[in-house]
# Entry
Amino acid sequence: MLEMPKQKGPPILVANWKMNGNLQSINRLLCDLKRDFLDKELGSGQVVILPPHVYLQIVAKDLSGTSILIGAQDADERETGPVTGGVSAKMLLDVGCEYVLLGHSERRNLFNEGDGVIFQKLKQAVKVGLKAIVCVGETLEQRNSGQVLEVISNQLKPIISQEILPQSEELLIAYEPIWAIGSNKSATIHQIGYALSEIRKILRDVDINLSDSTKILYGGSVTEKNIAEILALDEVDGALIGGASLDPKSFSKICRIAKTI
Ligand code: 13P
# Structure
């Protein structure tokens, strides 16, 4: 049977602010973003901002009534209880989050998060109804030794288990090659297309509905210069943006370009 190409929806842009900013700079950034969004509004749900945890509520309040959605950069793998410093998925929902980023390479490396913990976090997130964006991607060493597919597949397989399938609408995957993060050296269009189509194949092998419902994003040195050709790729449903999302001019430009795709 001939396979119909998957229909692409409008692209989703996710701004990962990481551990940057303070009250003053965040207020300024929000002010600039809102001014640009009032007259150049993207569809609801097309832009998601992930501020540091402590600023979530302020940002959520400030952006309420706009089309911009809020998410968190991480969530704990436990539901509640004696976890000093922990923030649960339910708490994130409580303060207005709709999304949560999980398994970012910085979490994997700096906090030693393995696939098992990431899966527990994913379970908690989808249980409360948060949309989870799970990051996968290889180091430069792994790429140079031809291990891209193996790495992606090993990171993906543990998280797309039978337990998650019923909640597959809540899952997004972000391909972020570690060498492309903050390096000013995005993956090439060919590399992005290849990795994302392999991710789609892995999802399809597990479940056709999972493959159809999962949005796949690219992240790693996305700027206003490369966003158009990245989003134009059939395989790409959106972008995860770090550095450029902290500059209101760059981010607004990226949003404006995305609107034309
Ligand atoms: P940069 O866009 O700064 O490369 O960061 C990418 C990233 O890690 C987003 O999660």
Residues 189-206 form the longest helix (18 residues). The mean pLDDT is 92.
